[in-house]
Design brief:
About 10% of the residues lie in helices and about 70% in strands. By secondary structure, it is mainly beta.
Length: about 170
């Protein structure tokens, strides 16, 4: 036990003061962001763009609502706008420097192609990291997975990589 305590103390001292007491900056209450995404799954590759709003009621938890999520590829255009979009929870992990987070949520979108449309329901999750450029601007990267339910066609799995920026609007 004594050796374990000594080892923990030495590692804590070696890590430096930032690791022992990271300065927790208060997150903006409202952030608005734009992103570009690449989706891959079941032998297809699509691209997309999006606009999102993130509300951070407390420092370790946020909620993301997609204002626009448009995907292009495979002869389809998939669009999620406002009331038919997605809602995700973001759980921020405390770390000095970068800001990693875990995200999970649900979504609904409409796919248009060849004269018809279909509703797509999905469950999503993954990881992400924010990097603060200045006190109001962050860049982020976010790999994730979407499990899509297509009416009459079963479920599919899609992997997503998103890169974007978020601008803090309300402190």
């Amino acid at each position: 036990m004594k050796k374990l305590f000594t080892l923990t103390l030495l590692l804590t001292l070696a890590a430096g003061p930032e690791a022992r007491s990271p300065k927790a900056e208060k997150k903006p209450l409202l952030e608005l962001g734009g992103k570009a995404s690449v989706f891959t799954g079941e032998n297809n590759l699509t691209a997309g763009i999006g606009i999102e709003a993130v509300i951070n009621p407390v420092n370790l938890l946020g909620f993301r609502y997609e204002l626009l999520d448009a995907r292009f590829g495979n002869g389809l255009v998939t669009i999620g706008i406002l009331d038919i979009s997605s809602l995700d929870a973001l759980v921020y992990l405390p770390m000095a420097g970068m800001e990693p987070y875990i995200h999970a949520g649900v979504g609904v979108s409409t796919a248009f192609g060849s004269g018809s449309s279909v509703w797509i329901f999905n469950v999503r999750g993954g990881l992400g990291v924010n990097y603060r450029i200045n006190k109001n601007l962050k860049v982020f990267g976010e790999p994730g997975i979407l499990i899509n339910r297509l009416p009459g066609a079963g479920t599919t799995t899609t992997f997503r990589l998103s890169l974007g920026v978020r601008l803090g609007l309300i402190k």
